[in-house]
Design a protein that fits this description.
With about 500 residues, the chain is an all-alpha fold. Helices cover about 75% and strands about 0% of the residues. Helix 8 runs parallel beside helix 17. The termini are far apart. It comes from Solanum tuberosum (Potato). This is Choline transporter-like protein.
């Protein structure tokens, strides 16, 4: 079987009506999706040799890695076992703080953060089948408390900026959880089924472990350079600016690795749902190898491009939704938040995590994939279901809690040895922990996104895989569409009544 046949629908798995052979078709519902013929037509159209997409952004990412790698090596080596080995201090004479240190003074703290992050990430993978849902429930409820406790500790240590920052984070997290508390049962149902799918594909767990090792290798160099930055003799302002640059770089690098896994898992899940079972005879040979090859070659540029924006936009969208639902009748504030909400919703059309499924299956560029995925959801009504689901937010909460634990462990040791550098080491260590755990949890999020894409393209695929889950999804979709319809009717009626002049007496 050649590459062009990789994602083709098997004639033995679906008949001309789009239903599995011998199975009853899915019942019609509001916002029903395209038929199996439409899906087959689109896939046959995509059965051409895959072209390289978004090559410019792949070049930018690779150049960024080289430049950041050189800078990290230079800054780390400059303070390794000898102060100002490369004579960098001569460029910072105007902002000398005269409190220099050595790279090895701070490098062990990052070793602790990396070790804690790795242990937590492995725990996620090991407990994926048995306790993943319980861990996610715990993450939802513990994050607010953890942020509040850290805020109190920061105020106690007279770190007022960080105390306020963590207090604001705890408040926003509390408001968000309160605003979506009624959605959590359905969210946990989706997460449980996604975990079930991932557990049926043990090879994707191996992919996550492999990329975790790749990330750890990069973190050795990154922590070496960052330890050198913390040990520099320049003032706190200069150190913080350098740390921000390196943290943004690490965030992008970690997002790229996570989204490579995302593309690989999405391709595997899509194949399983199309062919009905992992062991189906119609499954193409070596699907994991081909998914991996596409992700790191022709689709790599699209992954680099999307990784710059999707995580930040998704996080902003969750927070705005949580605040928006608690504003009440403050018209001025509601107007401002609505403006931001619609702006973010527009950005979501061009930068969303569902694009990676389209990239995995059809090999499109990122913007084309994101637009097609969002239009598919809106045309079928599934967007209403996605807006109700909080799976991504719950997974993100687990990642943040894990990062906070890693940062806290490194921060406590730093507090004992170098109390003036606690926040620098703690905040950068937190990012390390989040990225390592994110490489483990992304497999579940990838399964969630793939399930929604398949449900929008042909609900029969989900019905054949898990009929009970399909019925609950269909019921919830019907409820959400009815809710939106009633709200639109109320808004239209109220506006019409307000514009109708009263009859003269």
């Amino acid at each position: 079987m050649n590459d062009s046949q990789f994602y083709s629908l098997s004639s033995s798995s679906c008949d001309g009506s789009g239903s599995p052979s011998g199975a009853a078709p899915a019942p019609n519902m509001v916002g029903s999706s395209a038929s199996g013929d439409d899906i087959r037509s689109r896939q046959l159209t995509s059965q051409v040799s895959r072209h390289w997409r978004d090559v410019f952004w792949m070049g930018v990412f690779m150049l960024h890695l080289v430049l950041i790698g050189v800078a990290l090596a230079v800054l780390g080596f400059n303070r390794f076992r000898e102060k100002d080995r490369l004579k960098i201090d001569r460029f910072t004479k105007m902002i000398l703080e005269n409190q220099p240190g050595l790279t090895e003074d701070f490098w062990p703290f990052y070793t602790v953060a990396g070790a804690v992050g790795t242990v937590l990430a492995w725990s996620w993978l090991v407990l994926l089948g048995s306790s993943a849902s319980n861990m996610m429930k715990l993450s939802v409820h513990i994050l607010t408390t953890y942020l509040a406790v850290i805020s109190v500790l920061c105020f106690w240590q007279k770190q007022f900026f960080w105390g306020v920052a963590f207090a604001v984070g705890a408040t926003l997290q509390f408001l968000y959880v309160i605003s979506v508390i009624d959605r959590l049962p359905f969210t946990m149902l989706v997460l449980q089924r996604s975990v079930k799918m991932v557990c049926s594909l043990p090879e994707v767990i191996g992919v996550s472990c492999a990329f975790m090792l790749v990330m750890l290798s990069w973190l050795v160099l990154w922590s070496f350079g960052v330890a050198g930055v913390v040990a520099l003799s320049i003032g706190d302002g200069g150190r913080w600016w350098l740390l921000v640059v390196f943290c943004v770089s690490l965030f992008w690098t970690g997002a790229v690795l996570c989204n490579i896994i995302h593309v690989i898992v999405s391709g595997m899940v899509f194949l399983v749902l199309i062919h009905g079972d992992r062991q189906a005879t119609s499954m193409p040979p070596k699907p994991l190898k081909k998914s991996l090859r596409y992700a790191v070659t022709t689709s790599f540029g699209s992954i680099c491009y999307g990784s710059l924006f999707t995580a930040a936009i998704r996080t902003l969208r969750w927070k705005i939704r949580g605040v928006r639902s608690k504003i009440g009748k403050n018209e001025c504030l509601l107007c401002c938040v609505d403006f931001l909400f619609h702006l973010v919703e527009t950005l979501v059309r061009f930068f969303n995590k569902y694009a990676y499924v389209q990239i995995a299956v059809y090999g499109k560029n990122f913007n084309h994939s994101a637009r097609d995925a969002w239009e598919l959801f809106q045309s079928t009504g599934v967007e209403a279901l996605i807006a109700y689901d909080c799976s991504g937010a719950v997974i993100f909460m687990g990642t943040v809690v894990s990062g906070l634990v890693a940062g806290t462990c490194a921060g406590i040791w730093t507090r004992i040895k170098h109390p003036d550098r606690v926040m620098m080491v703690g905040s950068t260590s937190m990012l390390m922990g989040m990225i390592l755990v994110g490489l483990a949890t992304v497999v579940v999020e990838s399964a969630v996104t793939s399930i929604y894409i398949c449900y929008a393209e042909d609900p029969v695929l989900i019905q054949r895989w898990d009929a009970e889950f399909f019925n609950k999804m269909s019921e919830m979709l019907h409820q959400r569409l009815q809710h939106r319809s009633s709200r639109a009717t109320q808004v239209f009626t109220s506006r019409f009544d307000s514009q109708t002049p009263e009859n003269a007496v």
